[in-house]
Known about the structure:
The protein is of the alpha+beta class. The protein has helices at residues 2-24, 78-83, 92-95, 120-130, 144-153, 166-178, 182-188, 192-201; strands at residues 31-37, 44-51, 66-69, 87-90, 103-107. This is LRAT domain-containing protein.
Amino acid sequence: xAKMRNLVLVAVILQLALIEGKTENYExxxxxxxxxxxxxxxxxxxxxxxxxxxxxxxxxxxxQDIFQRSVDLLITDLLxxxxxxxxxxxxxxxxxxxxxxxxxERKDNYFDSVLKPGTKExxxxxxxxxxxxCGVYNPINNNCEHVATYIRYxxxxxxxxxxxxxxxxxxxxxxxxxxxxxxxxxxxxKTEMECLICRHKKG
Length: 203
Ligand SMILES: *[C@@H]1O[C@H](CO)[C@@H](O)[C@H](O)[C@H]1NC(C)=O
């Protein structure tokens, strides 16, 4: 019984540590990824944001602690949907309310071992550059991951690593490098966007 109690205690402590660590672990400029599931398929994709914490920045309101290409799910038609995918400051806690069945959040500075992250000044400059004007959303060339990697590293990438779209993004990269088959690959891809549209339809 004592052993059992100890186990439970350890579990509780671990859990507390996990919950507490969640936001306190982030530093300015960290990439946060949210692995999410599509509501009408088993596919997964990753949403990305940049942690900015309580650093004072132009246009950032109290409580807003992330910068991201936001997804507005209440828009009624595709064109408006696309236009509303602005890059703005928002609250991390709102991302915890995602309706996705899976929503695995983690610090995801995945190119730190090969690329130098920008300084705080550089990151602030890139946020200013992208705020409200990060171009038309495109799941393949200009998605939330491109924005996050640009802000942190100054270079745009989308790997969708560990998701249902990972292989497709690798194929697109290869096709792009070889400068051929691009069109076929683009037609072939089942995109993050399809997933989001589906989510939208389901309300
Ligand atoms: C991709 O994900 C795998 C685990 O699924 C991990 O080992 C690898 O480091 C990741 N690569 C990048 C670039 O994030």
